[in-house]
TrEMBL record:
SUPFAM superfamilies (alphabetical): Methyl-accepting chemotaxis protein (MCP) signaling domain
Region (Disordered): 75-94
Highest taxon in the source lineage: Bacteria
Protein name: Methyl-accepting chemotaxis protein
Length: 118
């Protein structure tokens, strides 16, 4: 009888240990499940952040294209201004040359008139 009691007690101990192991295993699976859920949320957050970064990069690229276009327009305008400045400069040089010629002609005329006696 003592053997039967001993076996019964041993069986109870074994069942308690198994029950405790099952509870511990259940808790491990719950922890794994929670960790997996957290990981999924973090991966989704990283995906959203990546989309935000991509949108910011696209906005920057558009701004850079606009800046390049404005720079090209400004460059073309500067070339136009330079061209339109060249013509008046050439005209001023011509006027200056003609003024110098008239002055030379005036001096020649004075010299020639100086040869006449009054």
């Amino acid at each position: 009888m003592e053997d039967v009691n001993k076996q019964g007690h041993n069986s109870e101990v074994i069942v308690e240990r198994q029950e405790k192991s099952v509870q511990q295993l259940h808790q491990v699976f719950l922890d794994i499940n929670t960790s997996t859920d957290d990981m999924v949320l973090k991966v989704m957050d990283v995906g959203e952040k990546s989309k935000e970064v991509q949108n910011a990069v696209n906005i920057l690229n558009d701004a850079m294209r606009q800046i390049a276009a404005v720079t090209q327009e400004t460059s073309a305008g500067s070339q136009e201004v330079a061209s339109s400045t060249e013509q008046p400069t050439a005209n001023i040089e011509q006027v200056s040359t003609m003024t110098n010629r008239v002055a030379d002609m005036g001096m020649n005329l004075q010299r020639l008139m100086g040869q006449f006696k009054y």
